[in-house]
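Section: Multi-chain targets

For targets with more than one molecule, the full set of components is provided together so that the structure can be written out for the assembly as a whole rather than chain by chain. Components appear in the order listed by the source. The example entry contains two components.
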Amino acid sequence: MTTESLPASAALTREAPGLGGFNVTVLKLEVRRLLRNRRTVIFSVVAPSVLFLAFGLNKAYASQSPGRGSHGNVSAFIMISMALYGAVLATTSGGAMVSIERAAGWSRQLRLTPLSPVAYITIKILTAMILGAASVIVVYAVGRATGKPIIMPGYLWIVTALCVWVGSLVFAAFGLFMGYLLPTENVMQILGFGLMLLSFAGGLFIPLSQFPHILQDLAEFTPLYGLNQLVHAPLLGVGVQMAWVANAVAWLLVFAAGAVWRFRKDTARV
Amino acid sequence: MTVTNMADERGRRPTGSGQPAAIALRGVRKHFGAVQAVRDIDLDVAPGEIVAFLGPNGAGKTSTIDIILGLSQPTAGTVSVYGMHPRQAIARGLVSAVMQTGGLLKDLTVRETAEYTASLFTRATPVDEALKRAGISTIADRRVGKCSGGEQQRLRFAMALLSDPELLILDEPTTGMDVEGRRGFWGAIRQDAARGRTVLFATHYLEEADAYADRIILLRHGQIVADGTSGEVKAMAAGRTVRATLPDPDQVRLSAIPGADSVEVRGETVLIHCSDSDAVARYLLTSTPARDLEINTRGLEDAFIALTSDDSDTPAGGSR
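Its structure, encoded as tokens over all components, is:
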């Protein structure tokens, strides 16, 4: 058989891009944008390092152990806490960028391009995780630069940093959920305060044992509790408790489900 | 709703040249709760046409455009763009749009915004060329947040050019621009359209529709009330008026002329409002002793007001 000889405009045979339009240029520009936002960089990268320098280097901590059987000292413990705090702020900020983009009509503009919603979300998560990594790396680098005060075997620097980074994925999902839920340009001011509370409740700033009993019980159900326990477990040399994993996974599912729910609503409406 | 993929049936443009219509809408309706923003629109736009959607605020222009762009789903009816679902046409870079407001990130520069957009298409015009054609090469490194409204609009236009689309849709693109900005913007569009791109633009500026469109579609309360060249639309609204001097005019006989809508007799002067002035004039000159014949058309402004005002004959009601 002969193919139709109609000069059906060559343009109509164009192809849609692979991977729903996902590409490295966009990822690069997104990271650049995030780094351009001074508030985000100060809060999620600079502040945790400063907090660590202020509270983690107490002379007494250098010789104190954070628990029996621990592989390092209290300074190391606090460095991990601060890295988690920073990573969580970073990934939340990254995810919550969707709020600003929706308010600016950018999400709608992107719907006039081949970029698929799933590719968009993937870019947001990757961007959030890149900033999260930057935050962890800076806190650890500052820790390293202080020299002596931190006692922790070399492999644990890597293991705990990875645990913190991977764990912060829970908060990339949280940021996305909030970004879709709160249609405000000031979303990070609200979230910054919320994360502070969650950090206290998760035991990142003050050991939970210093809280009244009833608060300790409640704290075990907050989103940073499980993560905080998990990222310190390698340093403390304690076994991983199922309750911690369950806490982290449950919150990841809650946030991811919330984000998917709001995201679906959003794409149906826009 | 069903979205048609059947290019062979509905999507074909009526001339049957083998290329599907740029836009084909069939029985499209859009309700927002009790509000009917679009009521039963049928529309074919052939490749290469420059079409204006003209209508007052709330006539359903933006709602219809959103449906064509796949930004919203029609409550009923089918839509196809080059014989495809709007989403598919967009994914292939066949359609792009310049929206009224928003859609830009303040923290990117002009060039970065264009690079971002260009990277999403399989085949894109070089960024610098698009910026040049939109007349914003000189501000490429400026942050979008620091650009004026007109510059931002030109950036939206540059972004729309990046995929070298077959169909360009502009939703009230010059809203808020000063006269000079508007002229510059349309100059760029007109230059671009000369390359054979199909263009559909919404406006409530009559001069824009009259000056830049081959075809004007008048919308009112979510319906098409007129569709044609600007001359045809003017005639459709007001019709034309044929004025002649005729001794002993017979009003009944004159009213019976095909194409005559109403007849006024003032002594020996007759005024015939008609939709087909050619037929009326021919009749008067060949079958009656009429002389001093004059044919007048009302301006587009009058046509616009006549067709879109609330007391014209189409049912009034919810509009967006």
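The interface with chain B takes residues 4, 6, 8-9, 11-12, 14-17, 21, 23, 25-26, 29, 32-33, 36-37, 101, 104-106, 108-115, 270 of chain A (CB under 8 Å).
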